[in-house]
Amino acid sequence: MAYFSLLKEQLRQIRPQAARFALFTLEGCLLGLFLKEHIVGVAPCYGPSMLPTLHATGDYLLFDRFSHRLGNIQTGDIVLCTSPSDPGKVICKRVLGLPGDSVDIDPRRATTKKIKIPPGHVWLQGDNMAHSVDSRFHGPIPMGLLQGKVRAVLFPSFKLVQGGLQKIGEVYPV
């Protein structure tokens, strides 16, 4: 009998601790889910379209999920976006045009054709234009497809990702 009364006493002491542990675990999971869905995310990046900025395989990117919602996207930023041609796929590209900007559809060609970016859209292109399916094929991308702004490469080697564009060669006025 003494054994059962001792066991009952131990269970009375464990229940509040177990309840606090379960509540703490639930709160932690909910906080983690909120952070993952609304604040930051981690995504793999595959393919040659962003060479040499990103590797063709194996880069894991840290991105924020709120910059584009706050209007904090600038020309030169690298973003993750739902693919316009395959909604199950996420693509990684550089922002080359914002609403109201005029951009060259394909600056590699001698005859340049410009397009004006409509409100609520961006122009995205890969850094490796020869191997990138981007706005040159899809046209301006709705901002609603943006998932976030890339902040860092986490793996295989950590590095912060800086936005901005670099001047390559001479630039002539149009």
Automatic annotation (TrEMBL):
Oxidoreductase keyword on record: no
Domain Peptidase S26: 21-106, 112-154
Annotated GO CC locations: mitochondrial inner membrane peptidase complex
Gene3D superfamilies reported for this sequence: Umud Fragment, subunit A
Transmembrane portions of the chain: none
Keyword Mitochondrion: yes
Family: Belongs to the peptidase S26 family. IMP1 subfamily.
UniProt subcellular location: Mitochondrion inner membrane
Active-site residues per Swiss-Prot or TrEMBL entry: S49, K93
One MF term in the entry's GO annotations: serine-type endopeptidase activity
Domain of life: Eukaryota
Pfam families assigned to the protein according to its UniProt record, in alphabetical order: Peptidase_S26
Keywords per UniProt: Hydrolase, Membrane, Mitochondrion, Mitochondrion inner membrane
Name of protein: Peptidase S26 domain-containing protein
GO BP term, example: signal peptide processing
